[in-house]
Amino acid sequence: MRTVVFDLDGTLADTAGDLIASANAALAEMGHPPQLVMGSDDATAFAGGRAMLRLAAERMGHADGEALADAGYQALLDAYGRDINVHTTLYDGAVAAVDRLRARGDLVGICTNKPEGLAVELIARLGLTEHFPALIGADTLSTRKPFAEPLLETITRLGGSRDNAVLVGDTITDRKTAAAAGIPCILVTFGPTGRAVEDLNPEGLLDHYDDLERVIAEVLA
């Protein structure tokens, strides 16, 4: 029985639009004009809320980006929680691919650096709660990706084994997490950095979810 663990943002779903909107809403609450641009800043959005606020601080010439990130982070989370799936879309073929894995008896779960409550809410709004019986978020444990523990705990909660598991993600964080856990990593090439993820030397590359089963079989062979 195989265990397939997915990252969420930038892997299963394109959440960048809503993340960027929440960052700009937080900036507005602090009295600043919008700084993040949908489409142009998607890669930063997938790096997290604090990364977006630090980029905004840089663009505004603020010397202490971390202070602005601290000041605006809760407002960003609140804004995101209110409008979590206005712009978000699932990547083409993602749900069908997960359905095929489940039909063949594979175990599937989510390991994300999105706070658990927000991840659970987003999955529910997308109608996918029943698809993923285990979900570990950034604050579920005392550590988050790229530490191995969140990934390994996801596998444990699914009842799977690390010896026959794979992580599907989109960033260097996922690559490092899989390496720390000692399991292979598949990186998607349809995120904002495209095929540049090939430079991270993952065990597999995924160009479209139609190819997921084949790529999993190759990396676990």
UniProtKB/TrEMBL annotation:
Pfam families: HAD_2. One of its GO terms (molecular function) is phosphoglycolate phosphatase activity. One of its GO terms (cellular component) is cytosol. Keywords: Hydrolase. Signal peptide: none annotated. InterPro entries: HAD-like_hydrolase_sf (IPR050155), HAD_2 (IPR041492). The keyword Hydrolase applies. It comes from the Bacteria. GO terms for biological process: DNA repair. Belongs to the HAD-like hydrolase superfamily. CbbY/CbbZ/Gph/YieH family. PANTHER family: PHOSPHOGLYCOLATE PHOSPHATASE (PTHR43434). This is HAD hydrolase-like protein. It comes from Gymnodinialimonas ceratoperidinii.
